[in-house]
UniProtKB/TrEMBL annotation:
Protein name as catalogued: Uncharacterized protein
Record InterPro entries: TPR-like_helical_dom_sf
SUPFAM superfamilies for the chain: TPR-like
Organism annotation: Gadus morhua (Atlantic cod)
Amino acid sequence: EGPQPTLHGCVHVACLSALGCYTECLRLVSGWLADRPSSDLYVLRARLYWQLDQPAACYHDNHAALLLEPLSAPATTLLSQLEAGSDLARQKAVEHILGGRLTIALAKITSALDLHPREPRHYLLRGILYRRMKDFTASIEDLVRAVELGSEEESAGGAGAEEEEGVSVVEEALGQLVLTYNDFGVHCSSRGLQAEATLLLDRAIQEETGDSRLYLNRAGSGEELGRTEGDALCDSLKKKLELF
């Protein structure tokens, strides 16, 4: 059998932790978890990850603890702390966005996601921010993730996360995806990548057929496409879009 968390072992970990030897503590606790997972051990390792400045790993271990024991008081308390820190980082990101400091805002919302990697509102905000920064591929990935997590919340029986005016995160993320496909398509068209632009604008129209501007953008791209030929980049982009 593997190592067990004996009384001596627990005292040893406590002493090492008091001395700041968190990496050694992590090694010992990971050995115990590999042999016999438990909610308490996951919470203990989550707190060690926090001390080592690894918030994402901290969250995932705490999430594992709650899966094993949904009413675990230590895990629930730690989750509340992580959510509070995550929400604060999100607020800071919004402030920086309003101030036009997009790079700093990106760092803040990424920090929010490190603290709470399953919060769809954070992916939604970062997806919007990526679009403003013209990182369209990253924007699409985050918005798709927002839809996935928001849908999971709704499927679990909850109302789902909501943005302002009662619009669900899923609805907002889908709307933002249309804008991203459109902006990405226009961006490609402006660079002479007409085949790619047409693929993206087609995808935007599939999601939202009521906006005439999308048809106009596609028509313009189609005219240019008639004077150019598709290439490997177009094929690569088409394959990527099929994944979303």
